Amino acid sequence: MAPFCTPAATAAPHATPIPLTSSRKHIAMCLSPKLGGGSQRARLVSSAAPQVRALSPAPAAEEAAGHHSPSPATVNVEYLAAEFAGHGVGFEPVGGSSCAVKMALSNGSVAHLLLPSGLVTSYKPAMWHGTVTEVLHTNVAEGPGGRPVVRGGVSVDLRCASAAGGWSPNGAWSLRDVRGSPTTSIEIELAAAAARCVVTLHSEALSTEVAVTNTAPAAAMALSCGVSNHLRVSTPDATYALGLQGSDYRSVEPALSEFSIIPPDYGAATARQPAAEARRRWASRGFDMILSGAGRDRLAEEDRPDGEEDDDYKHMTDAMCRVYSHAPREFTIIDRGRRNSVCLHRRGFEELYVFSPGSQYQWYGKFAYVVVGPAMLEPVVLGPGETWQGAQYLRNPNL
Known about the structure:
Blueprint: E1 8-9, E2 44-45, E3 54-55, H1 60-63, H2 77-83, E4 89-94, E5 98-104, E6 110-115, E7 120-124, E8 138-142, E9 148-152, E10 154-162, E11 165-167, E12 174-180, E13 186-192, E14 195-201, E15 205-213, E16 221-232, E17 239-242, E18 248-251, H3 266-270, H4 276-283, H5 287-290, H6 293-302, E19 307-308, E20 313-315, E21 320-325, E22 330-335, E23 340-347, E24 351-356, E25 369-375, E26 380-382, E27 387-395
């Protein structure tokens, strides 16, 4: 992964994180048996020594946000097009309140990202046969007020908690900068309070890199982050995960976010499986339990793997939802039906999330997908001024 450029972040004078009511149903990507300051899992980057380049500080409007819930300003497509024209990027209004950022490289690879949600809705890498192939799966559903909502794709689920409350930038990203050129790579930098996200379209990969700084002057902050990649497949019955043999796994409930695609009958299909009780145990977890001392002690006692993966060519035909620990930094999803494969590489994340809705649905249909992505079972604890960085790379091995 040496060709990829890794962003860094430094402390900046942002406002106190915005409160957010924590959800007890948010699992898998924000769960931990311990939240003490002594376990930071070697994933912190000192703000005193920025690497490669520093993401610039947030604008004054972010600092003035205070303790109000994040509500992104209306996306001004004409302004964005005039300000960030070129670089191989185009802007298109979507539904009156959103904007599609379209990236295109000279080798044919393209990717689309929505603002202000930050959702990557399309990634079509160039293939060996001279055309491009869509590797992401999305659905359009009806949201509040009857408005259309796009689900699936690549989404970042970032949550933070401290003694003052919780906050999340999810759905409130603003465009900060556009860099690169169609002949090399295109970077889209997003900002939300003390968080930064850089989505980069490379000739052979799509990367998502996240940096978060604890801007509180004296209080520690617990951070949890996960990235969900809804990968399009012909059917899970023709899909295999390569490289997970020997990894510990825990059966969990599906990770829930505004972008998740979960079949309505998934719970009934898995209720009779042996791991159902383990999933129910994990489903009750959330930041409320993690932040309590008694809860941490009980979670530590329960935090045992459900098993060890014994198949290096894991067939994803059955409905499953697991978090893998001690998994390799890179593994591959192969779809025999579409004759396509995608490699996932992660950095800064210790665990791996894997979800399959099962194979009882129509081939190439609404539920013809699998979800994989880096995750956390144990939140990172940031001291004042400290920064965490994490990244994932969807690599196309088919050039």
